[in-house]
Amino acid sequence: MKSVFHSFLIICICAIYVEAILFNLPPNTQKCLKEDMQGNQLVVGEYAVSEVPGQKVDYVVKDSKGHILSQKDLITRGKFSFTTELYDTFEICFTSKVPPHQRAVAHEVSLTTKKGAESKNYEGIGEAAKLKPLEVDLKRLEDLSDSIVRDFALMLKREKEMRDTNESTNNRVLFFSIFSMCCLLGLATWQVLYLRRYFKAKKLIE
């Protein structure tokens, strides 16, 4: 029963924090994948690119400000890791380069990323601390719980920011609407008075 529970727990954790993707990279093109990540979070990735003679593929990991966190040329298979400092949008880009005289073939690229609790090597942590398998699973569950709490705190913060933005926008729209109505009423009043004076000057009305 315990082994079934452990397996189910590990599957749930992996389903949440492991992202795997497989796509084709056409010749002489670039494909980028973006994701928002929290600050102070370890991200580990593993990639594999199909080999095509005479063609090469490069990759680069950057943040929203253009800072390069990881980069490598002529890749086929490997890993990368980086730690985020602040909440930001990060992207990993794969670029295919083919000589103009060569017949080009699309590359098949597979990418697996792990972040937060799943990026840690709990087997190594358990061996170093001499923990029992159940204690290792509890440690994993504790880190997962902390990560979920941080996610909810971030979602609450973003919801508050969006609510404040909506309220500020509504107030501005209300004031602009009142100002527009006052302008229209003033313009209509001025137009009526002007036409009245004009008609009196022309002796069309008394």
Automatic annotation (TrEMBL):
The chain crosses the membrane at residues 173-195. Keywords: Developmental protein, Membrane, Signal, Transmembrane, Transmembrane helix. Pfam families: EMP24_GP25L (PF01105). It is a single-pass type I membrane protein. Residues 1-20 form the signal peptide. Its main location: membrane. InterPro entries: Emp24-like, GOLD_dom. GO terms for cellular component: membrane. PROSITE patterns: GOLD. Coiled coil: none annotated. It is found in: Membrane. Residues 30-140 form the GOLD domain. The keyword Iron does not apply. SMART domains: EMP24_GP25L. PANTHER family: TRANSMEMBRANE EMP24 DOMAIN-CONTAINING PROTEIN. Belongs to the EMP24/GP25L family. This is GOLD domain-containing protein. It comes from Hermetia illucens.
